[in-house]
Design brief:
heterodimer; A: alpha+beta; 5 helices; B: alpha+beta; two-stranded antiparallel ribbon; 3 helices; 37% strand
Chain lengths: 169, 131
């Protein structure tokens, strides 16, 4: 029997904490711990790696400290567009989605596509429609948008071509 | 960008990555995260990998698959393969981080940016850090 293990990341950036909120670091650490807890509980109980990575990713998508799901950065047009992928090493099945605007759980949609969809990769409004048809929760785009991300967008737009593309990634 | 890689008690690996992209992105830009082989990859013959960073470079390097290929075809260890991919990325101007696990339970990570949020848990070990 293999010793189970899970590793997570919450992004990499050009500054230690590119954030104005002094509580951000503690909240981010709590979010990472919660994601590890979610994945580790599945693995410790003999569950599958694919269940564990989906569970951990869902916790981080819901946590506004990270650039995924709620709390994502904004496009030039001031909306959130979400991308996600999941892959199972047993048989290299995979699911991927891009440009989502209303699907609350992008990684869960990717998982659903991997297991039930006829394709590997869906994009845009049609992917959101696929999610709705599959019974995956839909929300307004405002659900994902935080005031801090609007401030960061304004900062990036003001910086123009000098903006660091991964400062808040 | 967030991501997770895991190996279960049966030695099967999996990877997941999710992102909002980059601030002020235009023209329907898509980065590496949803591209199988670039930002996300899992193969029981080698490793599961999730990436974060300057996506255009990870796409060009086919980073996640490259890590697995270096192990499977090149015989490198998980950490050697991960370090090699990050070095290759730096050579073409890319920065970011990778996390990976192998079917034997080994784990590795690395990053070339000043900061990275990451955490690891196993049956007898746990750490979380913002560097």
């Amino acid at each position: 029997m293999t010793k189970w293990r899970i590793v997570i990341h919450g992004g990499a950036g050009s500054e230690r904490i590119a954030h104005h909120d002094p509580t951000h670091e503690a909240r981010a650490l709590a979010g990472l711990n919660a994601a590890l807890d979610a994945g580790a509980a599945i693995l410790a109980d003999g569950g599958s790696a694919v269940d564990a990575v989906e569970a951990a990713a869902r916790v981080l998508e819901e946590d506004p400290c990270f650039n995924a799901g709620r709390g994502s950065v904004l496009t030039e047009d001031g909306v959130v567009e979400l991308d996600a992928a999941i892959m199972d090493g047993r048989d290299r099945r995979a699911g991927a989605v891009a440009g989502l605007r209303t699907t609350r759980a992008p990684v869960t949609l990717a998982r659903r596509l991997m297991e039930q969809g006829p394709h590997v990769f869906l994009a845009g409004v049609a992917a959101d429609r696929f999610a709705a048809k599959a019974g995956i929760e839909q929300v307004g785009n405002d659900f994902f948008v935080l005031p801090e991300r609007r401030r960061q967008l304004e900062e990036a737009l003001a910086a123009g071509n000098d903006a660091d593309p991964i400062k808040y990634g | 960008t967030i991501g997770a890689v895991a190996v279960d008690t049966h030695g099967h690996v999996a990877a997941a990555t999710s992102t909002g992209g980059i601030t002020a992105k235009r023209w329907g830009r898509i980065g590496d995260s949803p591209l199988i082989g670039a930002g996300t990859y899992a193969d029981d013959r080698a490793a599961a990998v999730s990436a974060t960073g300057s996506g255009e470079y990870f796409i060009r390097a086919v980073a996640a698959h490259e890590l697995a290929a270096r192990m499977r075809l090149g015989g490198e260890t998980l950490q050697q393969a991960l370090d090699g991919v990050l070095a290759d990325l730096e050579g073409i101007g890319g920065k970011g981080g990778l996390i990976a696990v192998a079917p034997d339970g080994e784990a590795a990570w690395g990053f070339t940016t000043p900061a990275m949020y990451r955490g690891m848990a196993s049956a007898d070990d746990r750490c979380v850090a913002i560097y």
